[in-house]
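anyone seen this seq b4? input:
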Amino acid sequence: MTDAYVALEGGRVIEARSRSPGTTRGELVFTTAYTGYEESLTDPSYEEQILTFSYPLIGNYGVREERFESDRVHPRGVVARDLTDDVAEWLREGDVPAVDRLDTRDIVTEIRDTGAMKCGIAAGEDATEADALAELDQCEHMSEHTDIGEQVSTPDAVTYNEAGTGPTVALIDCGAKGSIIESLVDRDAVVHLLPHDVTESDVASYDPDLLFISNGPGDPKNFERANELVETFVGETPIAGICLGQQVVANALGGETEKMEFGHRGVNQPVRDLRTDQVVMTTQNHGYTVADPGAELEVTQVNVNDDTPEGLENHDLGIITRQYHPEANPGPHDSLTFFDDVLEMARQDGPVAPE
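predicted toks r here
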């Protein structure tokens, strides 16, 4: 049954089956993860994107809220070979258009060969090709979503584990996954989740032992306030970052970021530590990367597949960042010690500013 259409940048339209009706548009990307669909679908880093699952069956162990990374589904649309009724119902409840019964191998291959692309979807009884093409015509590039932080960040400050005895963390919410907060709280840190556009004075009022820039969607250059926070606190307060957070830190300290062809999205990305030569498997979800770390940051870890920076550090300034997701929801737990390392850094007297 054809009652859905997927329009790809370039004009090709693919027929599909509607599983959650509606029209939508976004950047079409894929993930190679074969489990963790609940975590992926609630990851704020997928805001303004349409998520294609390369694994053929999505939903074979149901939908459980305790696995969610946020309070809603973030992709603008979902594409799969087969979606179970549980997942389809969940997406319908969230008004997220979804389609299946199409060749996702073909879509993944096209994204791999030509890069992430604009996409329009029309699904439902009255859907037409023209509807999907109209959505495609209105689709913007990710870098054009300059207000994307407003869509994913907390509007107000929220404190977790207020009675904790560990370091005080100012977590700048550029689209933070819930498991990052959990990983810090599990180590008895006091976590202040702060809006992405929080002022320097408001951050200082919490007297943080650690400034932490979270993951998030889109172009890191659109998170100007987070960039300014790094510039303000570097050399005074230890700084950590995950995913977009690494990119923000690099930009703030004179480095450069760039858009990748199709990004890293999955739970089996190999990362090599340049100091130990150890390789760990990691969870990743990003479409931008650090092209040049600049003079202040040392590349300590790289992706085995393409040599992109996966870890940046400056021990004199008290900086540790990771491009991947050490909290590993979903994914392997090889890199969970990242949170121990950054909190230990925060417990020290503080970094020594360069002369």
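The first helix runs from residue 37 to 41. The longest strand covers residues 256-273. kinda curious what u guys think
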